[in-house]
Write a structure and sequence with these properties.
single chain, about 180 residues, alpha+beta, Alpha-Beta Plaits, 4-stranded antiparallel beta sheet, 6 helices, 8 strands, about 30% strand
C-alpha cells in the first residue's frame, strides 16, 4: 500500500547510489524510481507507509553528507503521481494539456501532487531532470478550466515557490503534438 512518497536529490552521482541503497535498507519501502540526471545529480524516489518513507528519507538525508539538494515526504500522495513519474500514461484524445516546468526534481513531484489534488485532471508524466539540464516538468490533461485550476494550485504551493519556471495550458492540442509526447 502506498500512503506516502519520499525523495532525496543529491549533487553527486556516487553519493546518490549510496543514498538509494541506504534508503532501501533503512525501512520497508518500494523503489519508485532512481537515477542520474543532468548537472551531475542523482535522485531516489520511494513509496510505502508514511512512517517507513519518513525513516528512509531521513536515513538518505544523513547519507547525503553535505551534497543534499532537496528532499521531500508527501503523506497521502495522490495515487496518479508514481505512475506519471514512470511515464505510464496514454496521450490519445486529450482536451487540453498543461505543462509546468520546475528547477528542482522535488518541486516537480510537489507540483504534480498539488495539481492532481486540486482539480479533475489526469497526470500524463512527471519528467525528472533527464536530459533537461537539471530541470523537470509535469504534463497533465483534462478540461481547460480544470487544467488551469490545477496549474494555478501547483504554482501557489509553498513548496514550489521560487522553483517553478514557465507554465502553459494548451487547449485542443494538435494531434502531432500529442504524438510527440509519447
Amino acid at each position: 500500500m502506498m500512503d506516502a512518497l519520499g525523495m532525496n536529490e543529491v549533487m553527486s552521482i556516487p553519493t546518490g547510489f549510496l543514498v538509494c541503497d541506504t534508503m532501501l535498507k533503512a525501512a520497508e519501502v518500494t523503489l519508485v524510481s532512481s537515477g542520474c540526471v543532468c548537472a551531475g545529480k542523482h535522485y531516489t524516489v520511494v513509496s510505502g507507509e508514511v512512517a517507513a518513507v519518513r525513516a528512509a528519507v531521513e536515513a538518505g538525508r544523513e547519507a547525503a553528507s553535505g551534497v543534499l539538494v532537496d528532499s521531500l515526504v508527501i503523506a497521502n500522495i495522490e495515487k496518479s503521481v508514481a505512475p506519471a513519474i514512470m511515464a505510464c500514461t496514454d496521450t490519445e484524445h486529450l482536451k487540453s494539456v498543461g505543462v509546468m516546468e520546475t528547477y528542482s526534481l522535488c518541486a516537480a513531484i510537489h507540483a504534480a501532487d498539488a495539481a492532481a489534488k486540486a482539480a479533475d485532471i489526469r497526470l500524463l508524466e512527471v519528467r525528472l531532470g533527464r536530459g533537461l539540464g537539471g530541470k523537470s516538468f509535469v504534463l497533465l490533461t483534462g478540461e481547460v478550466a480544470a487544467v488551469t485550476a490545477a496549474v494555478e494550485a501547483a504554482e501557489a504551493l509553498e513548496e514550489t515557490q521560487g522553483l517553478m519556471g514557465k507554465s502553459v495550458v494548451i487547449p485542443a492540442p494538435h494531434p502531432d503534438l500529442l504524438r510527440s509526447m509519447q
